[in-house]
Amino acid sequence: AAGLYVGAIIVFARVRLDYEVHGRLSGLVAVLQTGYFFIYMASSYAFLDSRLSQVNTDSALFFLALGLMTMGLLVVAYSMPILGRRSFGRQTGSLYTRGLYKFSRNPQLVGCACVLLGYILLWPSWTGFLWAGLWPVITHFMVQGEEQHLDRIFGEEYRAYCSRTPRYIGFWKRSNTG
Hints:
The chain is 67% helix and 0% strand.
């Protein structure tokens, strides 16, 4: 867990530096950021007892987990392609505020959080909750760097969007980039 946390600090400090210096992510840093999230997801095997034979498919918890995971995957599948090259800062165009982005500035992260929550409900353990608890901390590092970048690019338009749209899911709104 400490390694994932320290890794997030290092990777997202580098992401922030790329945004500040180049106004976009370099190819290497984009790969580094994506690779970090793959490592985070793959680390689930260190935190969860994920033997499918131990999942009780007759429990209400199973159906709740399955519902959360399905909803999360649908949100991610819908929100990520919309951003396309924008998600790596390579193409800015205009600020995208439609669709799910009317309700959350980061619906793809909310969707991923739903998948993670469903995942740990399938194999509940204190280590699973620790692993999932790292998600909001790690992604928040990333979001802060992206927000500073978007504020530099879109200025007042972005600040107005922030004042009316929650960062995640209906709370934690902010009116500036601090």
